[in-house]
Amino acid sequence: MLQTPDHATLLQRISQTHPDPSLQRRARLLLLYAEGRETAAVAAAVGLSPSTARRWR
Q1: Which of 49, 29, 27, 25 has its CA nearest to residue 37?
Q2: Using CA atoms, how far apart are residues 46 and 53, in angstroms rounded to an integer?
Q3: How far is CA 19 from CA 15, 25, 45, in A?
Q4: By CB count within 10 A, which of 17, 21, 28, 54 is most buried?
């Protein structure tokens, strides 16, 4: 999913420091998917429904 290590670095930075909590959550979601996590686990980790997590993927 992540095409370069730079993408992961950028998402990590966004997930930790971006002033918009929704963007932090979305970055974390993408990082979890990149780790190979299943949708249910990703959704639970970021506090979304599985259908929303799939849509944001």
Answers
A1: 29
A2: 9
A3: 10, 11, 20
A4: 28
Burial class (CB in 10 A: 0-12, 13-18, 19+), 16: exposed
Closest among 40, 43, 38 to 28, alpha carbons compared: 43
Q: Quick check: 1 pLDDT over 70?
A: no
Q: What is the pTM of this model?
A: 0.89
What is the rounded CA–CA span in Å between residue 53 and residue 33?
A: 10
Greatest CA separation for the chain: 28
pLDDT digits (tens, 9 = 90+) for 2-55: 778 899 999 999 999 999 999 999 999 999 999 999 999 999 999 999 999 999
